[in-house]
Structures are given as C-alpha cells and as structure tokens.
Design brief:
The complex is a heterodimer of chains A (699) and B (281). Among the domains of chain A are: 351 residues, no CATH class; 32 residues. Helices cover 41% and strands 22% of the residues of chain A. Chain A has 19 helices and 28 strands. Chain B is 73% helix and 0% strand. In chain B, helix 2 packs across helix 12 and helix 7 crosses helix 8. The chains are: A alpha+beta (699), B mainly alpha (281).
C-alpha cells in the first residue's frame, strides 16, 4: 500500500500523545472487568514460580488452556518488578499500564506505515481503548499484528531493498502476536495469504509459516513440553468453552460481532470514562464505504478480504466476546482512513474557495481562552489528584459483591478463618465456606451450607461451631454438619447468639437467656449470671480463665477458676445499648463495642469511654472489633440514620478512617472482621458483601 | 452641555452603586466562602468568616468533581445545551430569513401567531409537553428535552433574527444572485456572515435555555442520576435529612463558570445583536 505522506511530525506526535493520554485515563478509571482477575492471578502465579526458580512449574502451568502464555508472562514482568508490593491490585494497575503502552505502540506502529490519520482513528476507537487499557490479552497481539502488516507492507513496496528481511520480520511479528492470543492470526490468515499470493510471494508461504510457528513455540512455554498434547488440550478446551455455560449464559446472537463494530459499546458500558460520544460506528461506516474502493485496488484488496473473511469467522465462531472484535479494528481503520482523508480534503477545498470558516468561525478573545483553560485545568487537577489518591489507596483492597461468585446476598454477621486456610462466612442465608483456588486462573471455590441465619462461629479441635437461629451446629469434617442440642436447663426457645473458644478446648456460648460453657469432653455448664440472664451478643475469652460476656446494657466478667462474676452496667457508663462485640487485646485491655454509646475500654480498674465527643470516632454505633497486630485495633462502625458505615484503625495514638476517597473501602457498614493466614483482612458488611484488604506481604 | 454633578450627588450616586454591586455580588461571594468551608456548613460563627475566607478546603470541590456525578451532569447539560443551540440556530435563522426576505401568504399572521404563543407561560405547557414526549417515546430522554427547549427559544430568536435580517441591505444578496448565487447560497454565504451578532444572541439564548433550566429538566428527565442535567442534579444532592451545603456551593460555582465563559466568547457580538435586532423590524 502506498501511503501518501502528507503528515507532519507534529501530527504524529499529537496522535501518539492523544493515544497515550486516553489510554492512561482509561487504565486508571475503568472498573475491574470480567477476565482481569484471571490474567492478573496468572501473572502472580508465574511471578511466584519464577521467584521460587520453579521453571518446570512455569512450563507446566495449567492455566493456559484457552489462550497462550506470552501476554500473561509479560504481565508477570510487572509483578516481578513490584517485588513485595505485588498483589492483585498493584499488579492489576501495572498490567494495565503495560497494556496501555502496547496500545500506544500499536497506534505508533500504524502511524509508521499508514500515516497519522489511520493512527488517529485507532487512537480514539473506544472499544480498542478499553481493551488496550485493561489487563486483557489484546494490547500485545494487536500491536504485533499491526507491526506484522507494516513489515509486509514495507516488503511489498516496489524496489525496496531487503524485502525478504521485512517478510521474515513480519512472520516473527505474527508469531509473537499468536503467542499471546491466537484469534488475531486466525482472523487475519485469509487476508495475509491473499496478500502474499497477490504480491508474488506464494513460494515463501511455507518458510514464513514455519518462522511464525517457531516464534510462537519459542514464546509460549506451555507448548515446550508435549506440544501436541497441549495443542489438543487447547483445541478441546476451546470447543468445550464455546458451548459452555459462560458463553451460553451471555446469550449473544450469531450477529453480535456486527453489533460490537456498529455501535460504541465501551461508551455505553463506561460513560464515566468515555464521556464523549464514541466514533466507532462512524469508522465502521467509513470502512464499509471504503470496501469497494479497496477491492478495486490490488494493493489494498487484502484489507477488504481481511474485513470480510474475518467478520465471517467471527460470525461463525460461537464465542462472541466483545474483545474478539478487536481483531478487525486494524482493517477497519485502514479502510476508513483514505475515505476520511478524501472527505477532509473536499471540505478543505470548499472552504479555501468560499472562505466561510474565516468569516463564521468564532474567534473568542484571549481572556475567554484563559478562563476556559483555568476552569478545565482546575477540574482536571482536582480530578487527577482525587483519582491518584483513590488509586493509591485502593491497593490491596477488593470487594466480593453479594451474589458474585458464590457469596449469597444479605448481611455477613460472622467471619471465621479456618485452620486449613479456608474462610467461613456466616450471614443471613447460612454459612458459606470460601476456598482459595490452586491456580489463580481458576475461580475460588464456594460451598454453601443452608444453616439459616448465622450469628457467630468458633473453631475448636472438635470442628467449627456455628451459632444459628435454628440452634448450634457443628461442622466436624468436610461439609457435613450436625445440630448440637443446647444444654438442658436453658430457657425454652433459647437461641445461640455468640460463641468463643478457649485454648483448652472449652466453648463459651452466649444465648438470648444467659450463657453456657462446654468443656472439651462435651459437658455443658449453665451460666445464667452472664449478662444478668439476658441476651448475650458477644463473648470474649481472656487469659487465666477470664471470660467476658456482652449483653444489653451490661458487660459481665467471669473468673472461671474462682467462679466469680462481676457486672458492669449503668454506673460504669453502659446506659442500655447492646454490646455488639468484645475484644481482649494483647496487652489484656478489654474493648467493648456498644451499639450507640461509643467504644469502652477496661484497663483492669476502670472503664474509659471513647466517643465522638472526645475522640475521632465518626459514629457511636460500634459494630465489630479486631486486633490484627499488637496495638492495632480495627473498628467497624455504622452511620446513624442512614446506610453505610466506617472502618477505622486505632493504634493508641492516631485514628485512621478508611474512606472511599482515599482507600478501597467502599463506605459499607462493617459487621464482622477477621484476618486469615495470608494476612488478608476480611470485612463482612451489611449490604456490600465482603471487602478484603491485604494487610502486608503474604507470609 | 452636560452639567457636572456636585460632590454630595456624586457621593450619593457612588454609595447607591456600591450598595447595588455588593447586593449583586455578595451572594456569589457567600457561595464561594461556603464552598471552601468544611463540614457542610452554610454559616460560620466566626463573623469575619462570613466575609473573608478565614478557613479553606478544596474538599467540597473534590467531592463534587470526583465523588458526585457532577461531570456526568455537566456533560449531559453540555450536550443538551449544545444541540439546542445548534437546532435553534438552524431553525430560527432559516425561518427569520424567510420572514424577512420572502413575501408569502400568511406571513403577517404567522409572525403575530408567534408573538401570541410567546404570551403563553411556558411552564403551563409542561404537562402537555410531557404527554407529547411520552407519546413520541422521548420522555426521559435528552432528545425530548432538546425538542422542548428548541421550541421554547423559537419565538424570540426568530423575531430577533428577522429584525436583524431586515437591517441587512437586500441589495447585497441581489448582487450575489447576479453573480450566480441561488437563494440558499445567498443566505448561507452572504446573509449569515453579516448576521453574526444576532446569531451570537440566538446561540446564547439557546445555550442558556438548555443550561440553566430546572423545571423542564427535572420533570422531563427525572432519572436516573446518569441522565440528569446539572441543575436538577445539583438539587438532588439535598435529601429530607440534610443538605450538603458545601458541596452545593462548590457545584453551583462550577456550573456558572461555563456560562460565564460562553458570555466571554460571544461578548463582542452581544450588545449589537441584542439592540439592533430588537429595535428595528
């Protein structure tokens, strides 16, 4: 293809800068998309294997059943560069930045052989912007496929020296594109064959195919060992996946690829990111206008073949994900650019004759431009500052929305990290056990046990004890449970509300009619004095046989060795609110979370009250407490009169309120807090599912 | 001969002017002060703070720009106001040119009818407009709102443009026609460039109709948040329990700035456009 080089260097730089700014903006502002956790998880897995020096593990990594390994390995470089700071959030953003860089390189590559106009169209194509600014597998193969076409275009120029060299470069580029995602080569294959045959390179096809294949194998460790079996496994996975539940559930019609190209779906999905109308459909329209023109030109006919045959392949292929449409964006912009150029030139000629724009176009005074620049600059500065704060603050945070994955809807009242690494989540609809996947590309396992409303949990050597509305359940092994009778003598219809386990295996129980204790041998002892016989909302076990019960307006202290009870009530400041949680920290200080009166702490002699009046507590309804490290107290609080809440950390000196504007905490109302063995803080909320926060490096 | 005013008269004049300026500017200054105050307070117990920025935070601006969908509302308003402006320009200039240049049956009656329509308070037509838009499938859509605003600006703009076209010597167009221009070319290439001041006024009216309205915007596009225009969007920040005054003030200041910038851009055409078009006809 002969490219009319009418562009100046300024246009070229302008297009590249525009592409970079749009992609950077999109990378920072786009929400987490479906496949991103999968690819980021793979990058983290690879990084772990490489750090361990487990190269066999890298080769045999089982997560590349659908797409080859190269793009994930490239994201791995980002995870490795992050070092100890690598987690799902940091790796996500680094991967997005890498994808955006490849996306900009694709624009620059297009500008190299097709001029700045075609590159400009690619720069603002919103579907391309979206998928080359997210941690997907599109940016790298798109870049290399464009560079491959560019290299072959160069080889096809009349009188070019070293044509064979450019042909081989193109083949290597196709191999690199395919090693990241095979769709690009499959969709472009008919057009590339037509190009080679049309330019008289038919005899080179076996050589070029061989070079591309060798590059593919060299860049894709998954096929280094037992390549035929791996290819067969990949093919069978593709076949099964295209008929699988995920694809069927999407329910896209056979013509969905046309819809992706004839609309601007990225703008519809993310109006907050793409705040101007998407021009994608206009590019497709221009490409269709340019189709017959290209067909008549033997040098550009391959573009028409690329678009038509590629579209046919996408229409036939049962999987219709929107990102697959990116395989046709290159021919679209290459077909559209000459038509757009022709239109622009016509307008320019008309205007040069009539001079209408000189007369009619507004020429605002300089101070109007200055005012506009100041306004835009102010808004952009404030937005960018806030965005950076949120992005930096959201590192390590993630949200499991109710209904997502296997988490049932409704409040999460209790969280119990289990000794085997799983995490039990108790809520309105029963107990759900989360289990981390063996391979990050796989989703976590969720097992749901329909126990009814779960209030609290405790784990002993016997198993996991669950206090529910229907009674006390024991999950001893696997996922089977049996109901445990409450001790005889408890009031009829007593409900287990709170649980705590002691190191000696004793289970301490709070009910709506006092407490009880079950020793390691299964013997129950009634404790009617607990909470003065009323409802117990919380239990905490201290050292030397000391047990605390939180009731309604009363905190009871029980010294089990001496069988002595001590009650704290109105005289100590507990005016009647329920004690939602009790915490005994590593210094022995007892913390009581009240539902309306603030936070109380017992230093062994007296209660000190921490309220909105004398501390930086944002609310007095304290719902849950946790000590993660010595002296680091995490506090959950509910907003008064409205939904949502606060998460705070108090180190004895300073209060840190985790707000949506400076952290990944969404402002939900925390109801339960726990830390698992990977040092992940789990926050069960009333309406926002579960929020997790990586407290530090994984041990 | 102009007599020079005496000193007491001058003092009185300036006092009245200064008081007038203060009366006009203080609400804006008050909103500016509230926008920089933390804690969603409209007032402060510090008397000096009611007149000078004794405390300042950008938190309200941050909240409005980042947390609230202000930018989405601004984009919606810009879209509605921009398309209304273009539609008003296209329709009113062609209508006004026809009224000014062509003699046709019912011309006088149509001009009087337009004035008669103008006497009907626009807000009374709200229910009927909503019904019409619902029937057309445009209720709750920006396009319906654009239709309503465009029709609202037609009467004044058409009269204003007609008045301006009347001042342009018809001989200029006739000369162009002798050179080969048709009526449409003479309209586009001769009349329109000469009518720039009136076009600026029409553009401004169209823009303001779409930008600053509350009643039509809140009734015709009631929800969701992502569809709202900036004024009803700002109003929706308040709820039955509280009004985030700081956010409100910051948002209010941010939404008047585009209007001021449009005024600055069109300023040089406005005075002549408003006076010439309105006094000659």
């Amino acid at each position: 293809m002969t490219v009319k080089n009418t562009s100046s260097r300024g246009w070229l730089i302008g297009v590249i800068v525009l592409a970079a700014l749009i992609r950077l903006w999109a990378a920072l502002t786009l929400p987490l998309d479906f496949d991103e956790p999968v690819y980021v998880g793979a990058a983290l897995d690879y990084a772990r294997l490489i750090r361990q020096g487990d190269w066999a593990g890298v080769i045999d990594y089982p997560g590349n059943r659908q797409h080859p390994a190269l793009h994930k390995l490239i994201y791995t470089a980002g995870a490795l560069a992050l070092g100890d700071a690598a987690n799902s959030t940091t790796t996500l953003y680094v991967s997005r930045i890498m994808a955006a860089l490849f996306g900009v390189a694709a624009v620059a590559g297009l500008a190299w052989f097709a001029g700045p106009l075609a590159a400009g169209l690619l720069a603002v194509h919103t579907l391309t912007v979206k998928y080359t600014a997210q941690a997907y597998l599109e940016a790298w193969p798109l870049m290399w496929s464009i560079l491959a076409v560019g290299a072959w275009e160069r080889a096809g120029q009349p009188g070019i020296a070293r044509a064979r060299y450019w042909l081989l470069c193109g083949a290597v580029a196709w191999g690199l594109a395919t090693a990241a995602k095979m769709n690009y080569a499959i969709v472009a294959a008919p057009a590339m064959l037509a190009w080679l045959i049309g330019r008289g390179y038919a005899r080179q096809i076996p050589l070029l195919s061989g070079v591309a294949l060798l590059t593919f194998v060299a860049a894709n460790p998954t096929v280094w060992r037992e390549p035929l079996e791996r290819f067969a496994a990949m093919a069978s996975f593709w076949a099964a996946y295209s008929q699988g539940q995920e694809v069927q559930a999407a329910g896209y019609p056979w013509y969905q690829p046309i819809i992706w190209l004839a609309t601007a779906p990225a703008v519809e999905w993310h109006p907050e990111v793409f705040f101007l109308p998407g021009l994608d459909p206009w590019f497709t329209l221009l490409a269709l206008i340019g189709l017959p023109v290209a067909w008549r030109d033997p040098a550009r006919r391959y573009l028409a073949i690329w678009l038509l045959s590629g579209l046919l392949i996408l229409l036939i292929w049962p999987t219709k994900w929107p990102q697959y449409a990116l395989t046709l964006v290159t021919p679209i912009v290459l077909l559209a650019a000459p038509i757009a150029r022709r239109g622009i030139e016509w307008l320019r000629e008309q205007n040069e004759y009539w001079g209408w724009s000189n007369v009619m176009f507004l020429r605002p005074p300089r101070y109007a431009w200055i005012a506009l620049a100041l306004l835009v600059g102010f808004v952009a500065t404030v937005y960018a500052t806030a965005l950076i704060m949120v992005t930096a603050g959201s590192i390590g945070w993630s949200v499991i929305a109710p209904g997502a994955g296997g988490l049932p809807p409704g409040p999460i009242y209790a969280i119990q990290p289990l000794r085997d690494g799983r995490v039990a989540l108790g809520g309105e609809h029963g107990l759900t056990i989360w289990e981390a996947p063996a391979v990050s590309e796989d989703p976590p396992r969720w097992n749901h046990l329909p126990l009814g409303m779960v209030y609290d949990m405790a784990e002993t050597d016997t198993g996991l004890w669950v206090a529910t509305r229907h009674g006390l359940a024991l999950i001893a092994a696997g996922e089977r449970w049996e109901w445990q009778p409450l001790p005889a003598g408890l009031r009829e219809h007593a409900v287990a509300r709170a649980l705590a386990s002691a190191p000696d295996g004793t289970l301490w129980l709070g009910t709506n009619a006092g407490g009880a204790a079950r020793d390691a041998h299964g013997h129950w002892q009634l404790l009617p004095q607990a909470g003065r016989g009323g409802m117990i909302l919380s239990v905490a076990v201290g050292q030397h046989g000391e047990v605390w019960f939180g009731g309604i307006g009363v905190v009871s202290r029980y010294l089990s060795h001496s069988n002595v009870w001590q009650h704290f009530d109105r005289a100590d400041g507990f005016a009647g609110a329920g004690i939602a949680d009790l915490l005994i920290d590593q210094t022995g200080t007892v913390w009581a979370a009240t539902l309306g009166e603030g936070l109380a702490r017992w230093d062994g002699t007296r209660w000190e009250w921490l309220t909105t009046a004398n501390r930086q507590l944002p609310a007095q309804t304290i719902t849950t407490l946790l000590e993660t490290d010595p002296g680091q107290i995490w506090i959950g609080a509910a907003r008064p009169l409205t939904t949502g809440g606060f998460l705070l950390r108090y180190d004895g000196q300073t209060w840190r309120n985790f707000l949506p504007r400076d952290s990944g905490f969404p402002g939900a109302e925390p109801l339960a807090l726990a830390v698992d063995h990977r040092r992940v803080l789990w926050i069960g909320t009333r309406a926002n599912g579960v929020v997790t926060y990586q407290l530090g490096p994984v041990p | 001969m102009i007599r020079k005013p005496t000193r007491p008269v001058l003092v009185l004049q300036y006092t009245i002017l200064i008081l007038g300026v203060l009366f006009a500017v203080y609400p804006l200054w008050f909103a500016f002060l509230a926008s920089g105050r933390s804690g969603d307070r409209l007032y402060t117990l510090n008397l000096l703070g009611m007149f000078l920025p004794t405390e300042w935070t950008f938190e309200n601006y941050r909240a409005m720009i980042f947390d609230r969908p202000l930018l989405t509302w601004l984009r919606n308003s810009l879209y509605v106001a921009g398309v209304t402006t273009i539609a008003s320009l296209v329709i009113t200039t062609s209508a006004a040119f026809a009224f000014s240049r062509f003699k046709f049956y019912g011309r006088e009656f149509a001009l009087i009818l337009l004035l008669a329509i103008q006497t009907f308070p626009g807000v009374l037509s709200l229910v009927a407009v909503a019904q019409l838009l619902t029937a057309m499938g445009l209720y709750g859509k920006h396009e319906g709102l654009i239709l309503a605003y465009t029709t609202g600006t037609l009467v004044f703009s058409t009269w204003n443009m007609k008045g301006y076209f009347d001042t342009i010597p018809i001989e200029l167009e006739e000369a162009a026609m002798i050179d080969g221009c048709g009526p449409i070319q003479s309209f586009i290439l001769i009349a329109l460039p000469l009518a720039r001041p009136a076009l600026a006024v029409t553009a401004l009216l169209g823009f303001l109709a779409g930008w600053g309205d509350f009643i039509f915007a809140s009734v015709l596009v009631p929800a969701p948040d992502s569809m709202k225009l900036v004024v009803p969007g700002l109003f929706s920040l308040a709820n039955s329990q509280s009004v985030p005054w700081g956010n409100f003030a910051a948002g209010g200041l941010l939404i008047i700035l585009p209007t001021i910038i449009v005024f600055l851009m069109l300023q040089r055409f406005l005075v002549s456009g408003l006076t010439v078009g309105s006094v000659k006809g």
